Amino acid sequence: MAAPNRAAPLGLYVHVPFCASTCDFCAFYQVRPTASDIADYFAACEAEAALVKWSRPVTTVFWGGGTPGLLSPDALRRLGEFTLRCCSETECGSGPTEWTVEMAPASVTEARLAALREIGVTRISMGVQSFQAALLAALGRQHSREQIYRAYERIRAAGFSSVNLDLMFALPGQTAAEWEADIAEALALAPDHLSTYCLTFEEDTALWLKLSQGRVKLDPEHEAQLYEQTWARLAAAGYGQYEVANFARPGHACRHNLNTWAMSEWVGLGPAAASQHGGWRGGNVADLRGWAERVQRGERMTEERKEMTPAALAEDAFIFGLRMNAGVSLEEWRTRAPDAPWAAVEALAERLVADELALWSDDRLCLSTRGRLLADAVGLEMMEAFQDASQS
After folding, report:
1. Residues of CATH 1.10.10.920 domain(s) within the chain?
2. Whole-angstrom distance, CA of residue 79 vs CA of residue 58
3. What are 307-337's pLDDT values in tens digits?
4. Secondary-structure class of domain 309-392 per CATH
5. Per-residue pLDDT averaged across 91-108, rounded?
6. Sequence ranges of the chain with CATH classification 3.80.30.20
7. Contact, 365 vs 372, CB < 8 A?
8. H-type helices in the chain, by residue range?
9. How many CB atoms are closer than 10 A to CB 72?
């Protein structure tokens, strides 16, 4: 089993499962909140945190969902106090260096923002998706362009260190011109960070049903065009790409995500939350009551539980690391995981370079622009290289 590195970062992810409605593209676990649900959630979070063997100071915090910003200001303060108690369990005197909270435009109020600033949140990530009414309607989003602008003004006025906007492209019926218009509107707001996600069709979502019925269609060539359009446009505007879907001004990359992709440890609390901690990876059951019941029995990380050996960590470091522009270091991972199937991995790396999908930067393997367009396929090949060789 991989030995814990006390000098490495430790993240804390808190899944807040409450949402006012389910967007057509969303496959994350969520429920419409009731007062009793929220009370049960807080009680179970406290109980789950008590089960964790905190190994070192928490360096980054991320509240995701669901819609964490849907909680009332008082509930946000309560969740913040709970989060800080988790940090104090690790003797982290100054609190996390980065604390991100996801918000939807319709839930952004001055009172909620004041509560978040009060507890120490440094970064707001707002799910915009599009500025165009027809495209928002096609996604089932419950906010308007006007609400986006009003929410952004309030977030900026509150004084958070970093503000991220989430956008989506390759939406049903979306043209290249419409996507360019969305990028232009986002850039006009001058956020510190932009996340641009290609729409994916997850099972058990409304969009998946439309795809299966032939009401929407996939167009890989159009998607590739929009990817390249995005990368060129944001680079020209001064946003550095550091991962396939993420762009930031200097100093504003999301440290929590960077640490996760680099296979550092994180503790996940809440229903459906995943953890990678103490030599194991696993998730909580995606059910509010089921999760609470398991926690009361002293159980967590029961779903898809896997021992994270050095070789298993190396596999995921290459799969996720190749999505980052900085790539991944073979020398570092050879040292950390000497028993991984390096002959097969290096053979694949050389083939990717020969096919101009990747390149070497010192000892780091990085994807080329063309390789980033095929990052999912490359990740699958890397997974097969690790697994096929380890089974032979």
Report:
1. 309-392
2. 16
3. 999 999 999 999 999 999 999 999 999 999 9
4. mainly alpha
5. 84
6. 10-260
7. no
8. 35-51, 73-88, 110-119, 133-139, 145-158, 176-189, 206-212, 220-236, 255-261, 288-296, 310-321, 330-336, 342-354, 369-373, 375-391
9. 14
Length of the chain equals 392
Decide the pairing of beta strands 60-65 and 10-16.
parallel
The residue assigned the tokens 């509150």 is 158
Query: Looking at residue 34, what is its pLDDT?
Result: 87
The β-bridge relationship of strands 280-283 and 274-277 is: antiparallel
In the numeric block, which tokens belong to residue 360?
């070497």
Q: Which residues pair with 303 in a beta bridge?
A: 283
If one compares 204 and 118, the residue with the highest pLDDT of the two is 118
- Which amino acid does the sequence have at 34? T
Q: Which of 165, 171, 169 is nearest to 149 (CA)?
A: 165
The Cα–Cα gap between 77 and 72 comes to 9
Rounded to a whole number of angstroms, the distance between the first and last alpha carbons of the chain is 21
Query: Are the CB atoms for 64 and 15 separated by under 8 Å?
Result: yes
**Residues of the chain above pLDDT 70, percent:** 87
Q: Token pair for residue 335?
A: 């040292």
Which tokens is 157 given? 């006025």
CA atoms within 13 A on the CB side of 273: 31
Tell how many helices (H) and how many strands (E) occur in the chain: 15, 15
Question: What's the topology of domain 10-260?
Answer: pyruvate-formate lyase- activating enzyme (3.80.30)
Instruction: Tell me what pLDDT residue 24 has.
Output: 47
pLDDT of residue 27: 47
For the residues of 129-153, what is the DSSP string, one character each? E-S-HHHHHHHT----HHHHHHHHH
Q: What is the arithmetic mean of pLDDT over 231-250?
A: 97
If one compares 29 and 244, the residue with the highest pLDDT of the two is 244
- Confidence (pLDDT) at 5: 54
Q: In whole angstroms, how far apart are CA 62 and each of 76, 145, 270, 273, 325?
A: 13, 26, 12, 11, 22
Tell me, what's the pLDDT at 252? 98
